[in-house]
Amino acid sequence: MLWKLPLSIIAVVLLSGCASSPTGQIEVFAQAATDSLSKVESVVDEFNQARINDRIVMMAQSDDKYVTADFAKLNDLHLQSNKQDKLALQRATQSLASYAEALADLAIVGSREELSIAGAKLSQSLATMNGQYQALAGEPEPLMSIESSSKLGRLVAELGSYYTEKKRAESLKQVILAADPPVQLLGEAISVELLSGVIESRLYAMRGNELAGHFADYNARVGKMNFAQKKKALDQLYDKYRERESAAASVDMASKAVKSIMKAHAVMAKELEQGEFESADILNAVGQIKRDHKAFDDLESLISSCKTEIMADPEKGIICKAG
Amino acid sequence: MTQLAELNTAVNALNNLWPLLSGDEKNRVLEQRNELNIKADELAVKTLLEGTAEIEQAVAQLNETTQAAIEAKDAIAVDVARIEKVADTVAKATQAVSKLAEVLLRLS
């Protein structure tokens, strides 16, 4: 009977401890962040393609003659060709993704399931021993009741969970608070400097180079065209102009996704500082990452499924032009 | 960044000019546009490859924190393994006691 007292006390401690344990939200944050960051890679691909296209545009705008060897030079433009020379954007994104992955691993280490199996095995063995005792001693009463032996097994599982959850909570708090300043700095650098500042501005200028070529063609032919021909040609030029305006759509979406990760991380850090592992604010911030990620997916599927042309509509946003 | 922005602005401005020109004049402006465009491209690539000292420092700092998270996870995993080992040892001991009891029962 003596062991029953500490057991009941421990059970109460366990129940109160579980209420503040770090569970789903941090893990969900880490998963959502990993998914969103993988999309930044597609922006790098788009930039690579645009650079190659830009060189072909410059070739087409000159009166020079070309041979096959001139195209071979285009391969050197691919920024991912040298793996040792990773882009700052990729290094920064990879650093954030590794962090998110480590955070997800830390958030789930020592799960209840793992420890429950150990506890269940123990309960089973105790029950067997109980039966043997009754048979050997010829006692009608068991050494311990069935209820008690299963409680002991549960105790092992719960004590383990309590211990690991407490330790995990302390570690998560330390890690997230220490990571917040570099996460904010990197997020800002990725979204503002690298994505918007470098890639978006270059995409815009490169699309402009191509558009100028079409204007030059139009201007060279305009004297020989009637109204209908000019209207048709100008409509086509306008479509290309709109296309340039939407060139940076994926950059905007990626930038938005990175910003929502930064925001969610800042919310988490703030809440953890106050000892809150789960809150409505964290839930909302994580939800925003998922919504931004979904928007990115929508755009991606729109781009991949569009059989005509992607363009910006002032009222509808990015759309697939009707065939 | 400012230099890249200036180069892009100049490229965009020349793109609004050369389609209106012809002959040598057009070729001269186009050549100038190409020159600035290539400079802008090189500068963009340089920025994307090198990043800034601030970015590198933040990457290093975050990588350190990531390592700390991995170490914390490993330490917890070791503790979990220990708890499981204790439970397992106790379970094995009770099984051994049960087996012994079984033998004793047969002998008695």
TrEMBL record, chain A:
PROSITE patterns the record matches: PROKAR_LIPOPROTEIN
Name of the protein in its database record: DUF3829 domain-containing protein
Domain of life: Bacteria
Cleavable signal peptide: 1-21
Organism from which the protein derives: Neptuniibacter caesariensis
Keywords: Signal
TrEMBL record, chain B:
Keyword Coiled coil attributed: yes
Annotated keywords: Coiled coil
Coiled coil: 26-75
Domain of life: Bacteria
Protein name: Uncharacterized protein
Organism classification: Bacteria, Pseudomonadati, Pseudomonadota, Gammaproteobacteria, Oceanospirillales
